[in-house]
Each structure stands twice: as C-alpha cells, then as structure tokens.
Amino acid sequence: MDHFNLRDGAVHCEDVPLAEIAAAVGTPVYVYSTATMQRHARVFRDALGGIDDPLIAYAVKANPNKAVLATLAREGLGADVVSIGEYKRAIAAGIPAGRIVFSGVGKTAAEMAHALEHGLYQFNLESVEEAEMLSAVASRLGLEAPVAFRVNPDVEAGSHPKISTGSVHNKFGVPIGEALAAYGRARELPGLKVQGVAVHIGSQLTDLGPLRAAFTKLGELIGDLRKAGHDISVADLGGGLGIPYDPALPPPPSPLDYGRMVAEITADWHVRLVFEPGRMIVGNAGVLLSEVIRVKPGAAAPFVVLDAAMNDLMRPSLYDAWHAIDPVTPRGSEMTANVVGPVCETGDTFATGRRMGQVQPGDLIVFRTAGAYAATMASTYNSRPLTAEVLVSGNNWSVVRERQDIEALIAADRLPPWLGP
Ligand SMILES: *Cc1c(COP(=O)(O)O)cnc(C)c1O
C-alpha cells in the first residue's frame, strides 16, 4: 500500500498534487512519501511482533537520501551499510552507531578503522581474509571489533540473476561448508569478538521457500558453532523480501507471513535477531515524475519519449525491471506505447508495447514503485545532471536533494596544463 493516489482526477502524493511539485522543481524528479515509509517500517516491526527486541537495520543502499534516513531513524530503525559513505550518511541522519551493521565484500582497512573508531553494532565479514585484515586494524587501534561471518548457504534465491547472492557461484559470504573453519580461525585472531552469524541470499524474493531453506541451514550452523565452543548471540537474517511492482503478478509473501516463518524457525535459537530490509521499506514509497517530450511514430507502436532516461532510473535496463507507468492526469483513454528516454542507447527503454493511459507531449507521467534502487543508481551519462528528490509529508513538501547544476558538473572537470588554463 502506498500514498500515491488519484484525487480530483490527478495523482497526489499524500495531500500534494504531483503537478504542483513538477511545476516548482521541474522534471524528472523523484517524490517520496513519508507516510508510506512510516507505514512500511511499522508493518515490518509489527510482523516481527513475537520476536524479542529485533534490530531492524534498514539497508541504506536502497535509498540513501539523508531525509529518508532521518525519517526512518525516527521510526527507530538502524542501518545496514556497505561503504563508509553510507556509514557517514547514516550517522549524519541521526541513526545511532550502535544500530549500524557494516556489510559488503570489499571493506578496506580505512573503512574498517573509521567504523571501529566511531562505533557500530557489528561487522558482517565475508571471508577469512577480511577477518585477518580487520584483526590487524583493530589490534593497531587497540579496539575490539564485534563480528559475524556472512555465510553463503548455497540456495537459489529464484530472483533476477543480478540480485541473487546466495549461491556458491556468487562472490558473497563464506561457503557454509567452510564456516566452522572460518570461525575457528577468527577465534585465534586478536581484536575480534566473534558474536554472530549472518545470511542474505538476494533481493526481490517472491517466495519464502529459499529464505526458509537458508535460515534452516543457519540454525544448524549455530548449533554446530556452539558445539565447537563459540558464543553466538546474534543472527542477522538479511533483507530481500519482495514487493509488488506489477499488479498482474501474484503478490509476494506478506511481511506477516515472513515474520511467522522467522518466528517458527528461530524459536529455539536464543539470539538477538537482526533484519536488513531495504526495498520493502522504501520501494513503494517513491515515484519518478517525468514529462512527455514528444510522441514519435513507431513501426509497431508509438514511442513516448520522456525527459527521464536510463541514467535516472536504471532498473529497467539493468534488471529488465517492470515499473507501472501512469499519466498524472489520466485522459480516460488508453494507448499501446514504447516508453523511452532521450539517452543514445537502445537500452534506454522503460517499456515495450505497454498498454497505458493515453499521453500527449507536455503530459506528466509517474513511474511507480521507484523509491528503492532508483535515484541512488543514477549517473550523469549523456551529461544529464542528477535528478532532484522531494519528500512529502501530508500537505508539506520539501526538496531533499537539489537537482545537480550542469555548470557545476562541467566545472568539476579539469584541463591539464598542456591543454590550457
Ligand atoms: C542489498 C542488501 C540488503 C537489502 O536487500 P532488500 O532486497 O532491499 O531488502 C540487505 N542486506 C545486504 C547484505 C544487502 O546487500
């Protein structure tokens, strides 16, 4: 459920007409709904109702805007970060260091040192080699690093290959068969406090089966680790719960079903559970608002050329992702169209042969469910400045990221001395 609804014949975000934002800020622009983010944070927390004191560490990479993070910080969420940039954003937005989990396969010594010095809940280590580096950094600083190993349970997530992470062929985690040895090694290393286990098998999962299989394997590992004398007090179950994009497809499992499954499997684990939801918190809380530049005739269907492009919203070209595309002010008739951006790539195609509301040049459209893995993946390809972002709350709205200034973008380039001043 979200708060982007038709009211008086035009799509609003909460109480604000999207056309008002487009007129003031220009297009393309991302628009986020506070009420939707709050709702999802609460739905997720309520779904874990039976679980004692879970740490819900929002996966910052889904949408790292500081205003988004500050909204979620007020809901009591922590952060799952995968770079020191994300760590600094989370701190800047008011997320307590003690609620930050540091994930990622390539943490550098400098990143480890910064997080150690400023505090965090846990490092999720992805290899013995990483444990050795962290041990050296922590020892040098005279600090102790709380750690878990992310294990790779070798289950097929059943999601798009580019967002599946839990098979032996992926770069992520310690293969579960080698986990006991990895924990044995970590125990010998100075500066590490081995406290947990972690797993994350992929994103946009639309079936609980792979998650259930992964958690079951993790539970067995906890037993084996305890038998080997390790004190395991934390289990991080990652993120990955899918959300509805295409209303024609069956809905993904509900947070409630997920919560029940987790409660059942973890009932006798006696650990603090950590969760890292990203997409399910912010995905439906954002839209990308764009204007139709022109409608160009095509062989099979007309091309609706937008002022948004693949550099603003990469998911369709990167993952073949499907986003609903709706006119902001529906005209009451439909068309079949190829929806494209102005970038000089055939991949700059958002939809092919799409049945959608009729649009004309100058009309506004929205890409729905564009709150996650959208603005944050934008680039300046084709020298297109990064898009503005707006946050709505009730009848208030505010620019939470300025549109990038094209002159500033160009000025960041430098001429070498031999090419001029
Ligand atoms: C991306 C990621 C998440 C969040 O995944 P969602 O599908 O957005 O919930 C959680 N944990 C880790 C380690 C990740 O890389």
Task: Give a short synopsis of this structure.
With 421 residues, this protein is of the alpha/beta class. The protein is 29% helix and 25% strand.
Describe the structure.
The chain is of the alpha/beta class and 421 residues long. The protein is 29% helix and 25% strand. The strands form three sheets. Strands 4, 14, 15, 16, 17, 18, 19, 20 and 21 form a nine-stranded mixed beta sheet that branches. An eight-stranded parallel beta barrel has the order 5-6-7-8-9-11-12-13. The chain has a three-stranded antiparallel beta sheet with strand order 1-2-3. Helix 6 (128-141) links the parallel strand 8 (122-125) and strand 9. The radius of gyration is 23 Å and the shape is globular. Pyridoxal-5'-phosphate is lined by residues 59, 61-62, 80, 103, 200, 203, 238-241, 276-280.
- Low-confidence spans: none
Q: Specify the CATH class of the largest domain.
A: Alpha Beta
Average pLDDT for all residues: 96
Morphology:
globular
Provide key terms for this protein:
single chain, 421 residues, alpha/beta, Lyase, Ornithine Decarboxylase, Chain A, domain 1, TIM Barrel, 2 domains, 9-stranded mixed β-sheet, 8-stranded parallel β-barrel, 12 helices, 21 strands, globular, binds pyridoxal-5'-phosphate
